[in-house]
Amino acid sequence: MRATKPLAALFAAFLVVTAGVSFAGAVAADAPLDVAANQQLDTGDAVVSVSQDGTAVADATVTVETEAPYAGNGTYATDANGTITLPNPNETVTANLTVTKSGQQTVETVELVPLNDSLAVNVTANDDRSATVSVTQYGTDVENATVNVTADGNYSGTGEYETDENGTVTLPAPNETVTVDVTATADDETAETTATLEAEGEADEPMNFGQRVSSFVHGLLGDEDREGGIGQQVSEFAKENNPGKGNGLDKETGRPDHAGDKDKDKDTGKPAHAGGPDKTDDGDNEDDPDAQSTDEDEDEEEDSGNGNAGNGNGNGNAGSNPGNGNGNAKGR
């Protein structure tokens, strides 16, 4: 009888453990399917992983579909590690992954990028006017990548660099605003970008139209997610921001904001602060025929009254001596 008690206790413990395992399995079966895709840095192949509650799911059905042609389209079954491998695409494609297991279904959309387009380089301006160059491949920081920097002006930051463990290098602040071309190389892959580095105090100055277009173009070229050409976007930006369209002009006068004093007297055409006689005095005489005629009469009278009227000779008898009198007639 004494031996049966330990056996009974062991059996009870076994039942508890078994029930716990069964309960955990039931919870896992109800958990959603998790899908992830990671492209390999050396081949560009994409490894798709299916898991459930943190556990790899074997024998899950994975259907791959893309709109663009892709050799990886089709239906797959995950291996014991819950993975399938898709080939490196010839061009960037958007793939819809439909995963099914035991009545559960999950749809995941991923972007697959060819290996020769997988390297990316970006330039970010810092608060102190220096710049940080970041090199990544499939979203992963690339250490020991070569970064070459050239500039269109006098810039001390030109030259060759090597990325650190974070995939970055730091460029010094420029003494004058410059445009830099940055080329990153890792293994056999290359990526390029262009950026404008602004000198101290110049960032707050308003850009002219040409500078704004140039900055817009550089931003488009540096966008690694950009698809297709940029001609249409640049054209629309130029039309929308062209100063000839009226941007930057005074709404009342149509004059540029940077032009001179716009508070001119509408009658005289002079700025309000200008001195001297008003042009309206002359303008009033020109518009009033009577006033003009009166002015002309007064001018004529003044002309006729000026000068010498001549010499007048008068003969008179004043005793026995004749007298000559000279008289000057002075006009009023």
TrEMBL record:
Residues 236-332 are annotated as: Disordered. Residues 248-282 have a biased composition (Basic and acidic residues). Residues 307-332 have a biased composition (Gly residues). Residues 283-304 have a biased composition (Acidic residues). This is Uncharacterized protein. It comes from Halogranum gelatinilyticum.
